[in-house]
Specification:
Layout (H helix, E strand, L loop, with lengths): L3 H17 L3 H10 L5 H16 L7 E7 L2 E8 L2 H12 L6 E8 L3
Parallel strand pairs: 2-3
Antiparallel strand pairs: 1-2
Protein name: BON domain-containing protein
Keywords: Signal
Organism: Aromatoleum bremense
């Protein structure tokens, strides 16, 4: 079982690597996107998390969700490509979601 600390470390490392590969302006845009979301974004984030948790096929996964203006980003680690695709479909089915960026990685158990 993957611990929360491991997931947090993977997400942090991925974010740092992603920022390094971009221009300072793009990194600044990403940093501003990490600012605290407004109430609507928090509600959308909560609804997407609930949709993922409610799916029995995704209950043993570790997926982080962020939302801004109807755009949802999924990040984390799953064990199959089917889980990755299912998470994206579930997120798209949530009312208010306009677009899903799927940054979920598939790794062997």
């Amino acid at each position: 079982m993957i611990r929360r600390q491991t997931v947090a470390s993977v997400l942090t490392t991925t974010a740092i690597a992603f920022c390094i590969a971009h221009t300072p302006a793009q990194a600044a845009d990403m940093a501003s996107a990490a600012a605290p979301p407004d109430e609507r974004d928090r509600g959308l984030q909560r609804d997407v998390k609930n949709a993922l948790v409610a799916d029995p096929a995704l209950q043993q996964t570790h997926i982080a969700v962020s939302a801004e203006g109807g755009q949802v980003t999924l990040a984390g680690v799953v064990t199959t490509a089917a889980q990755r695709e299912r998470a994206q479909r579930n997120a798209m089915a949530v009312r208010g979601v306009r677009q899903v960026e799927n940054a979920i990685e598939v790794t062997e158990p």
